[in-house]
Amino acid sequence: MSQVQEEPKVAKDTKEKILRAAMDLMALYGYKGASVRKIAKAVGIRESAIYNHFKNKEEIFKTILASLFTTPFDDFFENHPPEKDAIEGKNYLMKFAATIKELSFDARNEKLFRIIMLEIMQSDEVRKQFLKYFFDENIKKLSTAFFVMMQHALIRSGDPILMAQEFFAPLFYYRLEITLFRMDERPTHSLSSIFEKHVDFFWEGIAL
Amino acid sequence: MSQVQEEPKVAKDTKEKILRAAMDLMALYGYKGASVRKIAKAVGIRESAIYNHFKNKEEIFKTILASLFTTPFDDFFENHPPEKDAIEGKNYLMKFAATIKELSFDARNEKLFRIIMLEIMQSDEVRKQFLKYFFDENIKKLSTAFFVMMQHALIRSGDPILMAQEFFAPLFYYRLEITLFRMDERPTHSLSSIFEKHVDFFWEGIAL
DNA sequence: GTCTATAGAGAGATAGAC
DNA sequence: GTCTATCTCTCTATAGAC
After folding, report:
1. A44-62: pLDDT as tens digits
2. Which end of chain B is more exposed for a tag (fewer CB within 10 A), N or C?
3. Of A33, A121, A172, which is closest to B118 when you measure between CB atoms?
4. What's the Cα-to-Cα distance from B84 to each of A160, B13, B30, B96, B203, rounded to whole Å?
5. CATH code 1.10.3470 for B69-206
């Protein structure tokens, strides 16, 4: 409508559509299972037209990957820096768990999580990024939070990194469980309060 | 050598070889990636010869699956029935964790775990079995153990099922971490004591 | 039970007309 | 930028000789 964006209107649109369709299909069938044929069909164009927008199939995947790991975790720790906010103690953990919960029940984010779990054993890049975010950065930030809590004598002392892992692991486990339940169309409402329960249980084990 | 096994010597041998090769390849490349061609090549026969032993590729997979979930977990709980042995308290949990640790560092079992993680989002059967063993039976038995411990006032009271999940989740998480590290040939010795550390940490949080 | 040969489907990708 | 047409490769599976 405005004067600003003009020229590549349709082109950009198609490229977006391709990415969208590819993401949907890859979340369902994995990289291999999401063939260029199927992607093209889902978009409503021929296979050859795909190659006007991407060099090859792998480039499509890489583009999706790039968006995969611009993770909301960063957002959380930016909005809630552990050095500053961790003195909130249990409340801080509750906020973190709530973020994971939100992601678990968010449609787009579930797609991303599925692609990650589908390709984690196959794609070096996915695995690398997964380890970086799920096992490194997250744990690092969380361990800072626990360190702060220890300093303020909110919790018993111990190895902050171990504590961070112990806190994070069940959240990951529950999130995986939700995804798997969904795939079998099993109800997940029984899991909706599990994140809060986890924080309650965990806090009771470490609080002074 | 003995007189007993005679006739289907070679046949049974080839069938075994096929299963072995298929398992190796599927642990590396997944179901789709382990083509009949590759399996045949690994065995040292032609593709067509495969079909003398199995109706089709899926039957090979199903045969492997059947062996996948004749799990050592059953062994553990048979050898250490929670109703009886859980009064050992922390020691009981230590034994359980040691079993998971063993499985994590056992070559054959790692292959099975990889196949599970590779196909969990693709194969209904794998997912079903996974949920059954990792999320249901295991948790059920463990929750019995925690219930017993509560009754004997070894640990604080609470929901035994939640406690079982909270105890099990990190073990699963660490096992996954080990598998992923291995795939990138990252050293895992730093993780060798993590299972014991988990039990220590967890016990401190629930012990009375 | 293994082989050669081949069918038939689906994959990724390119050439060239419009 | 999209189309038709086509290439080439790989896949699962079968037929039939030995």
Report:
1. 999 999 999 999 999 999 9
2. N
3. A121
4. 35, 43, 41, 14, 19
5. no
